[in-house]
Amino acid sequence: MEEAKSGDEAHRQWLAAITRKQCRDYETLEISRLELGGLTMFFFNAEVAQKYAAIARGQVPGALSAGYCNGMIGYLPTAVMSRGNRRCILLWQAPTHLPSSL
């Protein structure tokens, strides 16, 4: 891989790790919604930026959000957070709607 010869040390280590693990270059974000009584909860299979919890509360006041649920695909920043950082997932459009009730 040509990229392994350039970039900073952290990038080279990251690239070597995903090459050894034969990781794919994409992940699937799963968002689940659960309602218990008057409480709504959203579950993400990633560590997510607080912006996503704010989106959830904007749609459902008082909603709780939890990461690391049903797996862990990595850290999910917003597009603004990842701007200029090639090691972050770049979200061209952050989710604005979360799943409806189960």
What does this molecule look like?
This protein has 102 residues and is of the alpha/beta class. The protein is 26% helix and 19% strand. The protein has helices at 9-21, 50-59, 79-82; strands at 31-36, 39-44, 47-48, 64-66, 75-76. It has a three-stranded mixed β-sheet, with helices on one face. β1 (31-36) and β2 (39-44) form a beta hairpin. The longest helix is centred in the first third of the chain and has 13 residues, at 9-21. The radius of gyration is 16 Å and the shape is elongated. Residues 88-94 have low confidence and may be disordered.
A few lines on this structure:
Helices cover 26% and strands 19% of the residues. The chain has 102 residues and is of the alpha/beta class.
Q: Which helices and strands occur, and which strands form pairs?
A:
Layout: H1 9-21, E1 31-36, E2 39-44, E3 47-48, H2 50-59, E4 64-66, E5 75-76, H3 79-82
CA-CA gap between termini: 44 Å
Series of H and E elements? HEEEHEEH
Based on helices, strands and strand pairing, what is the structural class? alpha/beta
Fraction of residues in H or I helices = 25-40%
Strand order of the largest sheet: 1-2-4
Give the DSSP E fraction (strand runs of 2 or more residues).
15-25%
Query: Count of helical segments?
Result: 3
Count of DSSP strands = 5
Overall 3D form: elongated
Average pLDDT, rounded to a whole number, is: 75
Rg (CA only): 16 Å
Characterize the main sheet. Answer: 3 strands, mixed
Brief descriptors of the model:
102 residues; alpha/beta; three-stranded mixed β-sheet; two-stranded parallel sheet; 3 helices; 5 strands; 26% helix
